[in-house]
Amino acid sequence: MITFNAHRNDLKGLKMRLLCSVLVGAIVLLAPSVWAQSPPPPGAQVFFANLQDGAVVKSPFLVKFGAEGVKITRAGINIPGTGHHHLLINTELTAEDKGYSIPQDARHLHFGGGQTEVELNLDPGTYTLMMVLGDGDHVPFEPMITSDKITITVE
């Protein structure tokens, strides 16, 4: 009887280990498709609609986001041909950043509400600005869709 119970417990443990192995295997196999970067909408581009490289502005100032070949939507919407804006201030996305959601902080501004402009209030100085189009999960497309990086001076 003791041997049978021990054997029965071993069988439960074996079934549990097998189930865990199957689940881990499924996660590993599915992960690339779940977290893969979206392909960009064909011909999509983003640009600054009202600022040019070398612009001199006074705070607060308006930044208008331009887009062609893509429908600007809210974050959380993952429909092909759609995306939303991110504004990078004095930074870039590194090679390591490109496969993940864009960080959200003072240098990485998210416009997940589908906004197409923002009023910025920056201290006097020189800044670089670059737009990045993200999918519904804030992940840049692959290849990335970015504006030209511009330099502005805030008086």
Describe, in plain words, how this protein is organized in 3D.
- The protein is an alpha+beta fold and 155 residues long.
- 22% of the residues lie in helices and 30% in strands.
- Strands 2, 4, 5, 6, 8 and 9 form a six-stranded mixed sheet that branches. The chain has a three-stranded antiparallel sheet with strand order 1-3-7, with no helix packed on it.
- The longest helix is centred in the N-terminal third of the chain and has 34 residues, at 2-35.
- The termini are far apart.
- Mean pLDDT is 83; it is low at 1-7 and 20-35.
Produce a short descriptive summary.
This protein has one helix at 2-35; strands spanning 45-48, 56-57, 61-68, 71-72, 82-89, 108-110, 117-120, 125-134, 150-154. The protein has 155 residues and is of the alpha+beta class.
Strand-residue proportion:
25-35%
The overall pLDDT, averaged over residues, is 83
Give me the CATH architecture of the largest domain, please: Sandwich
CATH class of the largest domain: Mainly Beta
Annotated CATH homologous superfamily of the largest domain: Immunoglobulins
Helix content: 10-25%
Number of helices: 1
Rg calculated over all Cα atoms:
23 Å
Looking at the structure, what is the overall shape?
globular
The description of the largest β-sheet is: 6 strands, mixed
Stretches where pLDDT falls below 50 for ≥5 residues? 1-7, 20-35
Secondary-structure element series: HEEEEEEEEE
Total count of domains: 2
